[in-house]
Design goal:
Blueprint: E1 4-9, E2 16-24, E3 31-38, E4 41-44, H1 48-51, E5 63-70, E6 73-85, E7 93-96, H2 100-114, E8 121-127, H3 139-151, E9 160-161
Parallel strand pairs: 5-9, 7-8
Antiparallel strand pairs: 1-2, 2-3, 3-4, 5-6, 6-8
Helix pairs in contact: 2-3
Length: 174
């Protein structure tokens, strides 16, 4: 019998850690707490969105702010994408903080629905702060960050993107 299962997650070289409750017999699950490793131990981060968005006035192409929810906690998180011409015949895809298969699926949607040829592009996607996101509501952010990097056009940093993206186009009937 297990009353509570907790995971302490984080990137090896970052000081931030996420405490995630995945089973709790007497309370809610999928809640997170965010902490920073310091000399005295772990210190709570009261506003995780501050560390999940990179600082600076410069807004580079490929960067977009998305809204996600972890348990009952809404978070603003920065996605960063980089596309570059591939040096080999087979383009490389790398995803840090999201499911790799979701990235490849959404890149196929970009190619098919937006008509942007990414078959000769290496693509790298990173979620700032080392958090892992599984919510489909960030799909549109992934697509916009990849397209922004490919077109080398920044997305204004005062825009927050939310939206799930499907595989097919639905036509509206009048």
């Amino acid at each position: 019998m297990v009353d509570v299962v907790l995971y302490l997650e984080g990137e090896r070289y970052l000081s931030y850690r996420i405490l995630r409750g995945v089973k709790n017999r007497f309370g809610s699950t999928n809640e997170i707490g965010m902490f920073e490793m310091e000399g005295e131990g772990m210190k709570e981060i009261t506003n995780p969105s501050e560390v999940l968005i990179s600082e600076g006035d410069e807004n580079p192409a490929g960067s977009v702010i998305v809204s996600t929810i972890e348990g009952t906690r809404p978070l603003l998180v920065e996605l960063q994408a980089l596309t570059t011409n591939t040096l080999f015949g087979f383009p490389r895809r790398t995803a840090n903080g999201i499911d790799f298969n979701r990235l490849t699926l959404l890149m196929a949607v970009i190619e098919k629905r937006a008509g942007i040829n990414l078959s000769n592009q290496d693509a790298y996607l990173n979620v700032v702060g080392g958090i892992r996101i599984n919510e489909p509501g960030i799909d549109l952010g992934i697509i916009l960050s990849v397209c922004s990097s490919y077109k080398n056009k920044p997305i204004p940093n005062d825009i927050v993107v939310i939206g799930e993206v499907g595989l097919t186009r639905r036509s509206q009937k009048s």
